[in-house]
Amino acid sequence: MDLSYIINELGEERDNYYRAVSPPIMQSSNFCFKDIQSLRESLAHEMDIPFYTRGHNPTVAILRKKMAALENAEESLIFSSGSAAVAAAVMSCVQAGDHVVSVQKPYSWTYKLLTNMLSRYGIETTYIDGRETENYTQAIRPNTKLFILESPNSMTFELQDIEAVCKIAKANNITTIIDNSYASPLNQNPISMGADLVVHSATKYLNGHSDAIIGVVCGTRAKCEQIFMSEYMTLGGAVSPHDAWLMIRGLRTLPIRMERIAQTTPKVVEYLAGHPKVEQVLYPFHPSFPQYELAQKQLKAPTGQFSILLKTDSMEAVERFCNHLTRFLLATSWGGYESLIYPACVLYGSMNYAKTTLPWNLIRFYTGLEEPEVLIADLEKAFAVM
Ligand SMILES: *Cc1c(COP(=O)(O)O)cnc(C)c1O
User: Fold this and answer.
1) For ligand 1, what atom is nearest to the CA of residue 203?
2) Measured from the CB, is residue 305 less than 6 Å from ligand 1?
3) How far apart are CA 280 and CA 303, in angstroms?
4) pLDDT for residue 154
5) Is the pTM of this model over 0.85?
6) How far is the CA of 243 from the centre of ligand 1 (A)?
7) What is the CATH number of the domain that holds 170?
8) Residue range of the domain that includes 310
9) N or C end of the chain: which has fewer CB within 10 A?
10) Residue of 78, 81, 107, 205 to mutate, ligand 1, most atoms within 8 A of C-beta
């Protein structure tokens, strides 16, 4: 299946809706039946036939087909957020008494799921430096059921050798879940590298327009069915048909957005890497990145997220720099059309992230779809007043 077929055609059964090019938003919570026989039929296949929108909705179903195909998976489930997707995937793999091995700095709410919530139900997590594959082997216990990967991770972009880690997992009967939000399915397909479940915050690149919160889990049909019958239906983190429709629309331009970002971001990074007020850039696609070679091997093209460490001993200078950027909006998240900065100094003293280990002079960047010259000029201005 080629990429544009997946994005333009797959799942779109236009005969069902007047041959409309753009699919309808099936904004209905429930579906009614002509007779008992057809109701019984639907209820018997609740994952695949419209019965109740928490389980199946025709607009969401289009997305499920596209996401499964984009990740080379048999099946996918769409959630109301990336965090809901992560929680459902993780919970489907563990029970009381089990042990999880996770990368050291997974996405903050994945960390909280493991540390604050699952620990209450008798599930223990060991955090390891995932850059060394051997650390996985060493962390395995007889009750280890799950490896959690995130490659690259969110703020500092450490990679794991996905193929090697998944091989270790398979040999030890351990399930692997990888958060693939950083790369998007266009730049990395972990299932083809041996991963069992791929999760996405579709809020980021996949929806791509900073207007919806959505999550995805991709895996085998059997595993997705298991999640559907338990976590998906029980925890009820289903996406709304309207948000699903927004994401279908967002996906139409995913390849050209990613292509644009792959061209422009390295230019912005190159400028920053050469700037005297920048101590270090963290970007998997910059030759100075410690895991540059693995990034070249594992990821197909550069993406828009990177971090810098400013060369200063004054937090006020960091704040001045941030306050004077006008084209980079001061906001969390990434993957939309707009460039963003998210400085680590704001985490200190915050309600949810106060335990951060990130240095206060770190700023996470995301380059959107702007012209790189415009972004560089904006940075130049902010450096001048820093
Ligand atoms: C944003 C994000 C999440 C959480 O997704 P939401 O859609 O915000 O719930 C999970 N993992 C990563 C890597 C993220 O960036």
Assistant:
1) 7
2) no
3) 18
4) 87
5) yes
6) 16
7) 3.40.640.10
8) 254-385
9) N
10) 107
Half-sphere exposure of 121 (CA within 13 A, CB side): 10
Q: Is 82 in the pocket of ligand 1 (CB under 6 A)?
A: yes
Q: Which ligand 1 atom lies nearest to the CA of residue 213?
A: 7
DSSP state of 241: H
Q: Which atom of ligand 1 is nearest to the CA of 202?
A: 7
pLDDT tens string 71-94 = 999 999 999 999 999 999 999 999
**pLDDT tens digits, one per residue of 301-326:** 999 999 999 999 999 999 999 999 99
Is residue 167 located within the same domain as residue 193? yes
Q: Which DSSP category does 121 fall into?
A: G
Report which ligand 1 atom has the smallest distance to the Cα of 86. 10
pLDDT at 172 over 90: yes
Helix, strand, coil fractions of the chain, as percent rounded to 5:
40, 15, 45
Closest by Cα among 347, 76, 336, 369 to 228:
76
| CB-based contacts of 353-361 (< 8 A; 24+ apart in sequence) | 353/108, 357/105, 358/155, 358/156, 359/309, 360/315, 360/318, 361/279, 361/309, 361/310, 361/311, 361/312, 361/315, 361/318
Distance from the alpha carbon of residue 23 to the mean position of ligand 1, in angstroms: 27
Pocket lining: 107 vs ligand 1, CB cutoff 6 Å: yes
- Atom 8 in ligand 1: residue holding the nearest Cα: 82
* Domain stop point among 199, 217, 252: 252
C-beta 215 within 6 A of ligand 1: yes
> Residues 171, 150: one domain?
yes
243 and 364 assigned to the same domain: no
Interval 269-287: pLDDT, tens: 999 999 999 999 999 999 9
Beta-bridge partners for 363: 308, 343
Three-state SS at 132? coil
Closest by alpha carbon to 303, among 269, 262, 333? 262
Give the distance (Å) from ligand 1 centre to CA of residue 138: 28
Task: Give the tens place of pLDDT for each residue, 95-111.
Answer: 999 999 999 999 999 99
